[in-house]
Specification:
40% of the residues lie in helices and 26% in strands. With 179 residues, the chain is of the alpha+beta class. The chain has a five-stranded antiparallel beta sheet, with no helix packed on it. A three-stranded antiparallel beta sheet has the order 6-4-8, with no helix packed on it. Helix 2 runs antiparallel to helix 3. It starts with a strand and ends with a helix.
Length: 179
């Protein structure tokens, strides 16, 4: 029983793995984000590439390059005749998705600043947002989403209305009086 091997560089926002058999290669690609994307692969030496879900043939360029489109969180699997070693050529993410991620980060950073200005800042929130920014800068969108959707940051958004309405400030005053 032979394990699947990772295609180098294909880990976030897409995972691509392959397994060689006697006369062919099984390959699968998984989109790990909430947006469509396309992954460019080079499968030099492949005689054909068959989509295992639809049984349709995927056109390969003369040098074995192919682009695979993936819907959000979709897994697609393929059978490559011959014995190519798949290589990652690149990943294309829609610009609108990249912009929406940056906007989500800006919005949360603004909320954190409001909490800090009121005296109710949380260093863990600042650290989580720093990690979000680093993941986004590295184009690790699945990691960005994992961090963004953490309980800590979801609570920040939920508690914002309490901050805006003054509930948090009132609670801080009551605690100060009883200390």
């Amino acid at each position: 029983d032979l394990p699947f091997r990772d295609v180098p560089g294909a880990f976030d926002p897409v995972t691509v793995r392959w397994r060689e058999t006697k006369n062919s290669v099984y390959l699968y690609a998984v989109n790990m984000i909430r947006s469509e994307l396309s992954v460019g692969l080079k499968v030099s030496g492949a005689l054909s590439m068959k989509d295992l879900s639809s049984s349709g043939l995927i056109p390969l360029s003369g040098d074995g390059e192919v682009s695979v489109s993936l819907k959000p969180f979709e897994l697609r699997s393929f059978l490559l005749e011959g014995n190519p070693v798949p290589e990652l050529q690149g990943v294309r993410i829609p610009e609108a998705f990249e912009k929406s991620c940056a906007e989500e980060l800006r919005s949360l950073s603004d909320i954190r600043k409001q909490f800090s200005a009121s005296g109710a800042g949380n260093p863990a929130v600042a650290e989580r947002l720093r990690k979000c920014a680093a993941a986004l800068a590295d184009r690790r969108y699945a990691e960005f989403d994992r961090l963004l959707n953490s309980k800590l940051l979801r609570m920040l958004v939920r508690n914002r209305k309490n901050l805006v309405s003054g509930v948090i400030q009132d609670a801080q005053k009551q605690l100060a009086r009883h200390s």
